[in-house]
Each structure stands twice: as C-alpha cells, then as structure tokens.
Design goal:
By secondary structure, the chain is an alpha+beta fold. It contains 3 helices and 6 strands; from the N terminus they run E-H-E-E-E-E-E-H-H.
C-alpha cells in the first residue's frame, strides 16, 4: 500500500492561546493534504477526474499529541481505506518521524457541481484510488 505524503507548513496564526496548533487548524491541514492527493490525477495528464467537485460528508479526528509552532513543516500521510460506488474514505496521520500528532479520516463524496448532486466514482478515479487502498482496519487503530 502506498501513502501520499504532503509537507504541510505551520503558520504563526495556527497557534491558539495555549501555544499549540489549534484543533480546528488540523482540519485545514487535512484539507490541504486531501486536495494535493486528489488533484494529482487531474491536471498533469489533462484528466478531468476529481475536478468536477467533491464534498466532505464526515470527519473523524483523534488528537494524540499537542503540536507547537516551529519552522519545519509536519508530514501529512494519506491513504484510502474504503471505496464505494459514490464515496471514499481517506485516512491520515499528521506526524514527524518519531511522533504522531493526529490520526483522522474523512468521507468524501464526488459531486457534480452543475447538476447539484453527488455522482459516482469513475473507473479512472477508482483505478487511481486503488493504488492507495489499505483496507486493514487494524492499521487505523494503531
């Protein structure tokens, strides 16, 4: 199983009054990594995959350790844990080499913006997602 890796910079404004990255900011980090992951397929080869839109149906976040501001980015690893006809689940770890700050997952629904409704995952999208599929539920519990 392959994981997508995204290097996420920390911004001074990410900190809260307690001196660590605010819990809400972690959603932004996940979003940045998810967009980088999903749109790697589309622009480079002229593919329209994932470019029509998608919506988040669910987020689940487990905060493991506080993250304080520093100049070095954190790594966000992403992979797929479930693919259905019209949704996918992406799992994440926000981490350094020796510690995990957050484990999370997001259910994403491809969306047809013109029609204003969800759509099915295309064969091209599914093929791309299968590269990152890890359906081992025990891997998320670690």
């Amino acid at each position: 199983m392959v994981r997508h890796t995204y290097s996420c910079p920390l911004r001074w404004s990410d900190m809260d009054a307690f001196g660590h990255v605010n819990n809400v900011v972690f959603l932004r980090y996940l979003e940045e990594a998810r967009i980088d992951f999903m749109f790697r397929l589309a622009p480079g080869d002229g593919s329209t995959s994932f470019s029509g839109g998608s919506v988040v149906a669910r987020h689940e976040i487990d905060y493991k350790l506080p993250l304080v501001h520093r100049h070095e980015p954190v790594t966000v690893e992403s992979w797929v844990t479930k693919i259905s006809a019209a949704s996918l689940t992406i799992a994440y770890e926000i981490k350094d080499e020796d510690r995990v700050y957050v484990r999370a997952s997001t259910v994403v629904v491809p969306y047809n913006l013109e029609a204003g409704r969800p759509r099915r995952i295309t064969a091209e999208e599914k093929s791309y997602l299968l590269t990152y599929l890890d359906d081992d539920k025990d891997a998320l519990a670690a």
